[in-house]
Description:
Blueprint: H1 10-28, H2 50-61, H3 67-81, H4 88-104, H5 107-132, H6 138-218, H7 222-251, H8 268-277, E1 281-287, H9 293-313, E2 318-326, E3 329-337, H10 351-362, E4 366-373, E5 382-391
Parallel strand pairs: 1-2
Antiparallel strand pairs: 2-3, 3-5, 4-5
Helix pairs in contact: 1-2, 1-4, 2-3, 2-4, 3-4, 4-5, 4-6, 5-6, 6-7, 6-9, 6-10, 8-9, 9-10
Amino acid sequence: MAVRLPRPHRFDVCVGVAGLLGGLLLWGLGLGTRVAHDPGVLWHGRWPILLPLAVTAVCEALRRTCPRSALLAGTAALTVDTVTQGSLVTLVMFTDLVYAAVVYGPPATARRVPWITGLVTVAGTVVAVAAWQVPEALLIGVILGMMTLTPAVTGWIVRNHRDAAEAARLRAEQTALLAELDRSQAVTAERARMARELHDMVANHLSAIAIHSTAALSLDDPGTSKEALAVIRENSVEGLAEMRRLIGILRDDSGEKEPTAAPTLDGLDALVEGARANGLDVSLDATHDKLPAPVELAAYRIVQESLTNALKHAAPGRVTVTLAQQDGSLTVRMTSPYGDRDAPRAPGSGAGLVGMRERAALLGGTFEAGPEGSPGTSPDGKIWAVHATLPTTLGGTE
Length: 398
């Protein structure tokens, strides 16, 4: 299978053509780097000048796509040029090949060419001075340095600047990508937090409304219907007030309003009284000291959502809520009868369990919920238990 050579860059082709035309112009005018009777000219005549000129021009067209091969071929052409009358254009194009080999060549070539050209410059200077033993021999080293070392060093500097710019561009892209990732994660976390807060704030009231409205519709008793409507009105007003408060917080971006105080464990008594008013037989046993605000908020919301689930799904019987603080953690446990119920049941989506589990995980705690056996608690001897353990130390602060 034939190997397809890379296509030369358009600019490089233009450079090669321009160099060839410039060399032909000087050749036509009879201008060379040496006179015909120079002892160093081994290949006499004007026509031999064109061969290294043409080869160097072709190498210029390949300076970017095949920099190492172009430099090797250009070096051979320059060697031939030194035994002819020579062309200034050939010398100029060779210096560009040295520069291109460092800038566009592989990293190994870019490192080696400056060292090689430096050694050639020093060796040429030493040999010329030793052979001729005149100060003018130092000019040989100067010329060699200008033709080889200078373009190599220039190419090395340009390559380093180019690599540094590319590295800076990649770092900027990575920084922008990380910033966008952080922003997306922050938006996702904020949306999840808002969803938990919204669910916990209104689910209790809406569940009570659903259950009592179902009871009012299913029972043909004016007294019961009136009581159910009273409970519905109370929960709808409270739920609407909490919804309006949450919407106000979301809409206000001026920063002038004081943030709404998060609920604490001091409000558990009122929360339990509200559950009793909705028909639950609830007992509360809470033993704890002052806790960090995130821990109190998580515990309050877990109890609130557990009571909401009990209102929607629990069978008749005693609901117990227990909070105990010990060994650097707060244990929240709630039990309710588990089994078939005759009372109307409100639909559930499972978002409450997800929210409670997320709240515990955000604090580095644990959460479990499910049925477990407990004879005598419910007709079928089972209870539904919610158990959460929340660390009371956040960042070393009690």
